[in-house]
Amino acid sequence: xxxxxxxxxxxxxxxxxxxxxxxxxxxxxxxxxxxxxxxxxxxxxxxxxxxxxxxxxxxxxxxxxxxxxxxxxxxxxxxxxxxxxxxxxxxxxxxxxxxxxxxxxxxxxxxxxxxxxxxxxxxxxxxxxxxxxxxxxxxxxxxxxxxxxxxxxxxxxxxxxxxxxxxxxxxxxxxxxxxxxxxxxxxxxxxxxxxxxxxxxxxxxxxxxxxxxxxxxxxxxxxxxxxxxxxxxxxxxxxxxxxxxxxxxxxxxxxxxxxxxxxxxxxxxxxxxxxxxxxxxxxxxxxxxxxxxxxxxxxxxxxxxxxxxxxxxxxxxxxxxxxxxxxxxxxxxxxxxxxxxxxxxxxxxxxxxxxxxxxxxxxxxxxxxxxxxxxxxxxxxxxxxxxxxxxxxxxxxxxxxxxxxxxxxxxxxxxxxxxxxxxxxxxxxxxxxxxxxxxxxxxxxxxxxxxxxxxxxxxxxxxxxxxxxxxxxxxxxxxxxxxxxxxxxxxxxxxxxxxxxxxxxxxxxxxxxxxxxxxxxxxxxxxxxxxxxxxxxxxxxxxxxxxxxxxxxxxxxxxxxxxxxxxxxxxxxxxxxxxxxxxxxxxxxxxxxxxxxxxxxxxxxxxxxxxxxxxxxxxxxxxxxxxxxxxxxxxxxxxxxxxxxxxxxxxxxxxxxxxxxxxxxxxxxxxxxxxxxxxxxxx
Length: 683
Known about the structure:
Elements (H helix, E strand, L loop, with lengths): L4 H19 E3 L3 H4 L7 E3 L7 E2 L15 E6 L22 H4 L14 H7 L29 H9 L2 E10 L1 H6 L9 H22 L8 E3 L3 H9 L3 E9 L7 E2 L2 E2 L3 H14 L1 E5 L16 H15 L5 E2 L16 H4 L17 E2 L5 H12 L3 E3 L5 H14 L4 E3 L9 H7 L2 E5 L3 H10 L1 H7 L4 E3 L24 E2 L6 E2 L2 E3 L2 E3 L1 H4 L7 H12 L1 H8 L1 H14 L11 E4 L24 E2 L6 E20 L4 E9 L6 E6 L6 E21 L6 E8 L2
Parallel strand pairs: 4-5, 5-7, 6-7, 7-10, 10-13, 13-14, 14-15, 15-16
Antiparallel strand pairs: 1-2, 3-18, 8-9, 11-12, 17-18, 19-20, 21-23, 22-27, 23-26, 23-27, 24-25, 24-26
Helix pairs in contact: 1-7, 8-20, 9-12, 15-18, 18-19
């Protein structure tokens, strides 16, 4: 049985209000002074926030929203991986003692925190006591405890964060091999549950503030709605997806386990849930794309997981450009390797072969085009450079801006391509010194393209977070301090009997994001923080441009086409017209010599500023695009001597022309030139 989201929300809110009426205690002075940022009632007991002052509202003098963006978070991942890997909940109607209690399997000393051991080394031992003592968790180096309790997110919002991307995440293989679980390992089932619980968390916060729509935690499904939320001073929450086998698109022995219908149905379902960005692959190669490797012992463990899931280990090849995937390394991961069948071992890898041999598959291209049709944003982090390069080719061919790199898993050499398209980048939540250094490497590009910067905390993402710099570290955080906008004052954050200090505890949970930003300011200066404070506007700029994108008219579709030659074949035609028939299954092929050309008559003088060439294996390393008004006098609009095949897009200052000619001067193979499709656009 299904119900409308509106009906479900009203029912949940009504139930919450009845339940919370007895449990919630009015916050001292909140009702009396009417401060909009204070709840009408808050559970008692509960976490302290540690912030005073009104959160900023509105836009700057140029009409731009202000604030930080966490472009990569996992609020509900305690519900992933079988439901028992990450202990604690982001909220509970029963209160903090229920939300932040430890998992039973961690008693008595945390020695069964197996995932901490496999991924981080050590023995995983810790004091398992949660509320109210929190002796050992949450911590910057603990991978299996809740970091996104709602009150901690509230502190980050009060400290200036205005966009949070909640990536719904899971991994069926991790779920299947982990000892403890209380539910199915089906990835899409987990994604649906996490989406539902994110809406319930919105209802929960609304109830604290007096009813539907009144809370600060606002799920948004469009950029205009997000702007309205931020202008009210609240937090815009965007739903994304990061999973290894979306829509069931795994591959077994290189055979896809999904088809185009599965992809269409999956994208439609996610869009209906409110999802607006997603990864097509994560950790394991799947039927859509190859992944960017993990390194060290974690990489070995994930490679084992890949074999258990797909029947194949990662395969590498030499890279063809400056971009490369992470080195796999040969570090042992005994806890994972013992799960391999007898006689099967993780392969060794050539240090000179740094790239995943698997790129974007045919089904992957179909999924990318499906996301463009739905105006969704694609996350290229975790894609192999071969897959990411092809995805960027597809976006450039359509001038599509919806590309994101949210947590430092993209090769930095892609950064300008992302910005040129209108995309957005964020850096992983590294320690302040590393964060400042990495931000500096791309600062000139942000200045060139006039964009802000983001961070991806990856909280609850089993990744590890900034360690403490020490009580005696230079330029340490001095409490209390002012928020980046200057309107609020933040002191050390306390939950129960535990008080956290970034200097000595590191970034243990999401409530310490403002402290970490202050640490960045003290280490790297105000300029880095200013770039981050422009992050919300830049993220929404990318999102808005993605929503507004419409496919440009293809001026070459059905154009009269002629060529210097066409390869003869008794079974099929390689005539010039095959390159402009709109069918990617047909192609024009020239004779096997360097100097060849394909000419298109658009039928009338048109504005021309972009030409896309979809090469078959027989491509040109050197060629030029020429334009003419009369078919006699030609001028070169664009040229290259570094063609590498695939999908090429030539962008140049738009001019008026009737005729377009592609002139090949040097072949990349022993064959001639062959083009599946040529498209021509005004811009």
